[in-house]
């Protein structure tokens, strides 16, 4: 049975090592705009049934319990925490925070998900062609595209996603386009690409796109950016608990090794 203990403790060390990796990534992105923290879920492995519950002994009595020995644990999945991050005031006209659910649709590499990606990062800038792009990586164009002329001034973005500007020194507002938000039946099933970009999977379900405030999506706040939703205190507490569990699993390996050594010495002395 000491061999089983070694294997069980080894699975615990592997699973806890993954949890440490996830916590480290969360803490590293505590200041990343629109970053969503992840957590690790565990599940126990199969059991050795040394005696089935309800087994009948030689006297015909039914045992009230059985003997089951577990074979360890493994990582079941990593789960995104999609709770709202704190809104940070920037007072910049092209910074937009999503208050509520939803993602901005952006154009990414055509070889990935047909070039369609999603993000909650509303740090927008204009590229050399006057197109609205997300200020991450090389700049990803918002979909549907929104283009402003080089003479555009006094740019504003309404809560419903309407983008307005004035021409030169004029005072008349002109609508340049419409920012839209996309929802998913299971946003937990989105695949992470990095750069706060997500892509659709079979698990997430198809995208449902509409104007902000429609289809259960949130509203837009101009002059704000959504910060990371990482709680450093909670992450550090979880890290300490993980470290203690790691130490306990290491102790299990040492104990099992000592038991095997004792058995080996008994065989040599016999």
Question: Can you walk through the features of this model?
Answer:
With 270 residues, this protein is of the alpha+beta class. The chain folds into two domains: 2-81 and 231-269, no CATH class; 87-226, no CATH class. 24% of the residues lie in helices and 31% in strands. It is built from two helices and 20 strands. The protein has helices at 2-28, 232-269, and strands spanning 38-44, 47-51, 67-70, 73-80, 87-89, 96-99, 104-107, 116-119, 124-126, 132-134, 140-141, 152-157, 162-167, 173-178, 181-183, 191-194, 197-199, 208-210, 219-222, 224-226. The strands form nine sheets. The chain has a three-stranded antiparallel beta sheet with strand order 9-10-11, with no helix packed on it. The two termini are 21 Å apart. The model has no long low-confidence stretch (mean pLDDT 90).
What spatial form do the alpha-carbon principal axes imply? elongated
Helical proportion, percent range: 10-25%
Strand order of the largest sheet: 9-10-11
Work out the helix count.
Answer: 2
* Main sheet overview: 3 strands, antiparallel
Q: Please report the total strand number as a whole number.
A: 20
Structural class, please?
alpha+beta
Rg measurement, Å: 27 Å
Provide the β-strand percentage band.
25-35%
- Count of individual domains: 2
Low-confidence stretches: none
